Task: inverse folding
DNA sequence: ACAATTAGCTTAATCGATTAAAGCATATTT
DNA sequence: AAATATGCTTTAATCGATTAAGCTAATTGT
């Protein structure tokens, strides 16, 4: 491993102090009041020697690592994978490096990741928090570490966040179903106290006040069994004419169940899904779904966090999503 | 932001030098020959003050960041997302932090990521290299930075790697198709010089030497159009009775096309896919596919890299994959 | 012409941990 | 009694960059 070039090497070669070199290369010429020729020479030699500043030394001195920690709720979920990718791309534009973790919807895991990341001295967090993780979020805030929640937030925690307009888009989407003539709706969501889940439910309820409908809650940890039995009930007892799924994981699992039990969509039963999935393309009829602005969520979260890292002020952002009713692109 | 506790604080509180504290807390008591009581006291005070060592200072001094860089070929591909997750989990066990990047199959992007990661002074790399990226890999090796390739490797580059037994498992899988009575096979792969792609093709060729078969190559950048036209040819001209897809992205895109054109699987045409996809569950008949040992690939890559980071020796590993012919779990 | 500025540069402390080398008792050997 | 060894601890340099404060000589103001 070749010895790296340091400020000292440049200083030595020219015969000036490291201070001058530092002033010039970190763009603080005015502050150091460096002579024009000297500055030019320093820049030239730096280029010659292919000088690369040592991030670590810089971090030690400044206390800033230019690293942010992203903790998504479940990285195996394409929704979050896309978020992760976009956050990474966007943060790179700001000169930030992202380290990613997945809490797998577990508070315990989130806690560990937060600890590891804090030890790594990340400058800020972007987190999509699992259920009942308020305390951890508040802990981060209490340490004065900038944080921006994404996709989910807590109503009673004063933090920055970027989320989708869950209630409105759900209400809008369900209204669209009603407009199509469906009169007996089932809503399947996770049993969760998270605001985005409550909002989606409220959106459903607001839209269905005039018709018959049922709300079913699945426990995340036992979703496999519970989803199956829930759909059984919906098909055989409630005899709903359409199911509304509150998340993409529920949508995919639900569609899988329906397909495997040869329930024809939309003839036997229609569905409405929240968030996109690749599997929708495998149905002959378009799957009605709410498409969240994933890229935008990610980008905005980085911007908000970045601003918060320099200035102090928090920011809350609610983005609109889009109802997809027919698009179907042939491969 | 509360001031963090440093070695100095502990030393000051007890009235010893920071050297002693360092010896004790970094587990080098013998080396520093620290008195038993003093050591005990140091440990106790460290716990009291909730001392957390400063990674950055440590890195600056030791030149080790305990960070590895993982660069996958395409993070939006569930195969690589799983790899990323498993690598992250596994590296955590070794006390390593992972920073992840996606080259999106672009040599240029890989180059940038490698530069960024080297600036960040990662201790090692795990990379699934895109086509024609030998030079970048060799560059990393020339810098003396430990690296382990994953999923793909270059025959003529002497590096550590972990890959699947692509040729054998493809040959085996195709033989199974032949055993089922298929006699006119089409093989769809990416146009690539990467070893794993060549191996899969060779496996196909070895298995089909006695029957009629055709090999089709798709350009990654224009796969949408080319795949469609290729399948057209296979259906209308070659009139194959089964298609073998070389990767999961090709499989999913191919299945999508077939579904949308109402080609019934396996009645009209059967398929054999390389690697798993969630969409297989949406077919009534099981989709025959080769299941790669993703977790194991990831784990082994970390282990190999870790070993390489302490000792010097390279390691090449070829893992067996599994042919899935019927499994179908009801949701 | 003499004080006050200012331009240009250096000194040296600092961030927090590591570690070779040296210091100083006390104990043991010769 | 001198020499050596042993046990415990401190000193101080180091990693590489940042930055307040200080210094000198040239320039400006009155």
Result:
């Amino acid at each position: 491993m070749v010895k790296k070039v340091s400020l000292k090497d440049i200083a030595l070669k020219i015969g000036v102090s490291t201070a001058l070199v530092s002033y010039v290369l970190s763009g603080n010429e005015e502050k150091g009041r460096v002579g024009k020729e000297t500055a030019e020479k320093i820049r030239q030699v730096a280029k010659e020697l292919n000088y690369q500043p040592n991030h670590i030394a810089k971090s030690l001195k400044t206390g800033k690592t230019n690293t942010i920690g992203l903790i998504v709720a479940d990285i195996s979920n394409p929704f979050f994978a896309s978020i992760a990718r976009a956050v990474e791309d966007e943060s790179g534009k700001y000169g930030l490096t992202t380290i990613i973790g997945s809490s797998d919807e577990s508070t315990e895991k989130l806690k560990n990741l937060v600890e590891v990341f804090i030890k790594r001295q990340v400058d800020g967090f972007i987190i999509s928090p699992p259920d009942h993780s308020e305390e951890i979020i508040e802990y981060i805030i209490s340490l004065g570490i900038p944080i921006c929640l994404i996709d989910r937030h807590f109503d009673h925690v004063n933090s920055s966040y970027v989320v989708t307009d869950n209630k409105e888009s759900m209400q809008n989407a369900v209204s669209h179903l009603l407009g199509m003539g469906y009169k007996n709706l089932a809503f399947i969501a996770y049993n969760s106290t998270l605001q985005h889940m409550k909002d989606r439910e409220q959106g459903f309820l607001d839209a269905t006040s005039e018709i018959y409908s049922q709300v079913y809650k699945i426990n995340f940890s036992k979703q496999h069994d519970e989803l199956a039995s829930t759909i059984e009930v919906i098909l055989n007892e409630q005899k709903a004419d359409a199911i509304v799924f509150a998340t993409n994981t529920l949508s995919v699992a639900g569609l899988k169940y329906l397909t495997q039990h040869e329930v024809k969509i939309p003839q036997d039963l229609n569905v409405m899904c929240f968030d996109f999935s690749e599997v929708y393309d495998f149905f002959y009829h378009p799957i009605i779904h709410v498409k969240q602005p994933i890229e935008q969520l990610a980008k905005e979260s980085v911007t908000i966090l970045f601003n918060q890292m320099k200035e102090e002020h928090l920011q809350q952002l609610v983005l609109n999503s889009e109802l997809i009713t027919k698009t179907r692109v042939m491969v």
User: Anything to note?
Assistant: The first helix of chain A runs from residue 7 to 14. The first strand of chain A starts at residue 67 and ends at 72. The two ends of chain A are 49 Å apart (CA to CA).
